[in-house]
Design goal:
The complex is a heterodimer of chains A (113) and B (113).
Chain A: E1 4-7, E2 10-14, E3 19-25, E4 30-38, E5 45-50, E6 56-59, E7 62-67, E8 72-77, E9 86-94, E10 102-103, E11 107-112
Parallel strand pairs in A: 2-11
Antiparallel strand pairs in A: 1-3, 3-8, 4-5, 4-9, 6-7, 7-8, 9-10, 9-11
Chain B: E1 4-7, E2 10-13, E3 19-25, E4 31-38, E5 42-51, E6 54-57, E7 64-66, E8 76-78, E9 87-94, E10 103-104, E11 108-112
Parallel strand pairs in B: 2-11
Antiparallel strand pairs in B: 1-3, 3-8, 4-5, 4-9, 5-6, 7-8, 9-10, 9-11
The chains are: A mainly beta (113), B mainly beta (113).
Chain lengths: 113, 113
């Protein structure tokens, strides 16, 4: 079964708008939640990550919101730009084993000019 | 340039053939992993290693073998290729601990006919 559920599968946002991607997990042993960004023909690259002891982390236009009780976390991209068009993956890790990332199914984001 | 190098970038195999996907990193990372990426399924862990001589199975290990004789190299072997192994394969490396992202290679697109 999918340990990390991600939605939506695809998303179209106008330039300057807010992009929101949601993820949910079941395993409460997960203790590190990174987001990866992937451009066509490239490997995923770490975008931003959060530990469950904080509810929000912001880096530039990218913010992770984390709800531990609901076992949900989301990525918000403020002032979305065409250059943000990519596939975004949420992921989860248990016990510091960063080599065993469990990925969501991905969200294809298209930011229209 | 430092990073994760995967070869080849593209490969077509016939059913039943064997081959090795190469992966090398020059960042002295102890952790290395192989993932496969399929549409709608995200990235799924095939095998991983926490150091030279140490490997273990991930979510989808059947049909694949790995070995880690050096810190730098982590080849993935397909024993007898099947059409179900048509996918994009990514190798990644990283360090232990939450403060380090996992660095991915640019992938190998494999088609089994």
């Amino acid at each position: 079964q999918q340990q990390v559920k991600q939605s939506p599968q695809s998303l179209i946002v106008q330039k300057g708008g807010i992009s929101i991607i949601n993820c949910a997990y079941e395993n409460t042993a997960f203790d590190y939640f990174p987001w990866y960004q992937q451009f066509p023909g490239k490997g995923p690259a770490l975008l931003i990550a959060i530990r469950p002891d904080v509810s929000e982390k912001k880096e530039g236009r990218f913010t992770i919101s984390f709800n531990k009780s609901a076992k949900q976390f989301s990525l918000h991209i403020m002032d979305s730009q065409p250059g943000d068009s990519a596939t975004y993956f949420c992921a989860a890790v248990r016990g510091g084993a960063t080599n065993k990332l469990i990925f969501g199914t991905g969200t294809l984001l298209a930011v229209q000019p | 340039n430092a990073g994760v190098t995967q070869t080849p970038k593209f490969q077509v195999l016939k059913t039943g053939q064997s081959m090795t996907l190469q992966c090398a990193q020059d960042m002295n990372h102890e952790y290395m992993s192989w993932y496969r990426q399929d549409p709608g399924m995200g990235l799924r862990l095939i095998h991983y290693s926490v150091g030279a001589g140490i490997t273990d199975q991930g979510e989808v290990p059947n049909g694949y073998n790995v070995s880690r004789s050096t810190t730098e190299d982590f080849p993935l072997r397909l024993l007898s290729a099947a059409p179900s192994q048509t996918s994009v394969y990514f190798c990644a490396s990283g360090k232990d601990g939450f403060d380090y992202g996992y660095t991915f290679g640019s992938g190998t697109r494999l088609t089994v006919v």
